[in-house]
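Complex 234.
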Amino acid sequence: MTKVAFVTGANRGIGLSIAQRLKEDGYLVAASYRSTPPDDPNLFPVKCDVTSQTEVDEAFNEIEANLGTVEILVANAGITRDNLLPRMTEDDFTDVLNANLTSGYRLTKRAIKPMMKQKHGRIIFISSVVGITGQAGQANYAASKAGLVGLARSIAKEFASRNITANVIAPGPVNTSMIDELTEQQREKILAAVPLGRFAEPKEIAAAVAFLASDNAGFITGTIIPVDGGVGMS
Ligand SMILES: NC(=O)c1ccc[n+]([C@@H]2O[C@H](COP(=O)([O-])OP(=O)(O)OC[C@H]3O[C@@H](n4cnc5c(N)ncnc54)[C@H](OP(=O)(O)O)[C@@H]3O)[C@@H](O)[C@H]2O)c1
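Predicted structure with NAP bound:
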């Protein structure tokens, strides 16, 4: 039977690219959005703010009713709210943790029981190289992305016996609106730290997700796959 994949934050950027790649690879793909649905008739659009357990639960209900059990979960939605730590408000910190890390808990909590019944599941968190290296001005974001590693590894251990894997992809800088928001000076500084001397294209992150979702990755769990042009060298 055709497997169902659910990609969050899939109306643009990396998430849209992941959703389109998984569709090309033959999955039924639910693509979540908050405001504007993805402009792609091949994806099943589902409204979901990942900071709300109610919306997460409703999104899964809708996907299950229309496509079937989600066997591939890609937690991609994420935000930044950069500032140097002395100027970072507690809301800046907790909002980023909520959207980037607690969302992973919410999504997995809803996804896991049907995956256990299915005796198959792939959970893929989109983290960031800065979760490993740290980044001035991004204490909130880096902490949230590092937290995904502990979350994935705990899930990997808790559900390995049910044939459910959990892994993390750690991209370096990728050409999306997240990068567009930076100043020219910030972009140049980031670029200077990339040994391969360029930003990634979203489809290069999607390729790593496609591999982790595939049967070829059945023996890989609890790991971090860097797609970072050499920034982290981890
Ligand atoms: N771009 C990079 O350089 C880079 C590097 C490393 C890691 N990443 C990670 O890759 C992921 C995607 O990044 P991107 O560059 O594609 O970002 P992007 O272009 O800014 O898109 C972010 C996506 O997340 C969604 N989103 C944000 N908050 C949400 C919420 N509360 N509930 C549901 N959806 C929400 C957005 O939906 P709306 O359109 O509705 O806002 C959008 O679809 C993020 O987790 C990011 O941290 C990005």
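The mean pLDDT is 97.
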